[in-house]
Amino acid sequence: MKRLFFFLLLLSPSMCLLAQNTFEVKGFCISAPPSDQVGPFIDFLENELAPNGINTMVLRVDYNYAYESRPELRGENPLSKIQVKQIVNKCKTLNINIIPQVNLLGHQSWHSEHTKLLQVYPEFDETPHIALPENYVWPNDDGLYCKSYCPLHPKVHEVVFDLMDEILDVFEADAFHAGMDEVFYLADDNCLRCKGMDPAALYAGELIKINNHLSQRGARLWIWGDRLIDGAQTDIGMWEASMNNTARAIDMIPKSVVICDWHYEKAFPTAAYFAIKGFDVITCPWRKPEVAVDQVKMMHDFKMNSTPEMAAHYLGMMQTYWSSTTKFIEEQKASTGNEANAVTCFKAMVNTMKTIESPYGKLE
């Protein structure tokens, strides 16, 4: 008995260390604040994200910055350089790594309005023959969810690379999130440049161009992972996976890309697929706390039951939120703790991670 007790004393520190290092990334994804909400946003970082152990923030900037290189692409009420530096400096003190995002390729419109890129440069539109409706509904005859830019337009990268460079500089970032999710318009039959081409090759080619540009700056590319999953083979479908033949791109792209593997209705084990393919992966919930709990446990199980080489690919978790911090705070105040929304999902995610990483944590 004494020998067993002594053995456990020797073993427990390493076991505790392993548990405490389970989640390298404890992330939160949210839109950047408008310029008149920077103060409340900084309070949110200090009072909500940092106390919950968040160490990584994907900040969806898009056109909400006063670009100097491309002032024509400034959105309404954009962040100034001084305001961005306030956010950057606060994150430094809180040990939160900022990864700025600008949606590339897809998500170039929303409902009945183009995003700034296609407003200013309509010639970049992959499907200019499809008009945005006055009253948007889904589903629709055009299969319109969001517009894409044409990845083969000869001038599109001059513009988007300027945005990327300026965003990397002002946020002092060593990684960049390019979105690239839910790309439904690609290799369109009416596009003179893309017609008849392989969607997987087009998707991979665009990702490689973006990645190569970032690599020259010493920055790492992050993307959402849905276009790299075969929606038919997995039966996951067209939203959280691809039904338009882009999934084969997974074997054409650099392994340095970080995959943000989002699933909102069920804890699909696709993180293992990405890891087996050689990619670092982060699992992302949204608004169902039970899904977040299952995802955290799943990532923990993957990491604990893998070889060291494979375990290193399971980086952690990231809560996603698709509205403003103001809305998140409002939901917090109204929350009873029993409803299924992003607030309760976030709490479930961070609390489950804390339990796992505690030396005395126990998973049920």
UniProtKB/TrEMBL annotation:
Keywords: Hydrolase, Signal. It catalyses: Hydrolysis of terminal non-reducing N-acetyl-D-hexosamine residues in N-acetyl-beta-D-hexosaminides. One of its GO terms (molecular function) is beta-N-acetylhexosaminidase activity. Residues 78-324 form the Glycoside hydrolase family 20 catalytic domain. It holds the Pfam family Glyco_hydro_20. Belongs to the glycosyl hydrolase 20 family. This is beta-N-acetylhexosaminidase. The lineage of its organism: Bacteria, Pseudomonadati, Bacteroidota, Flavobacteriia, Flavobacteriales.
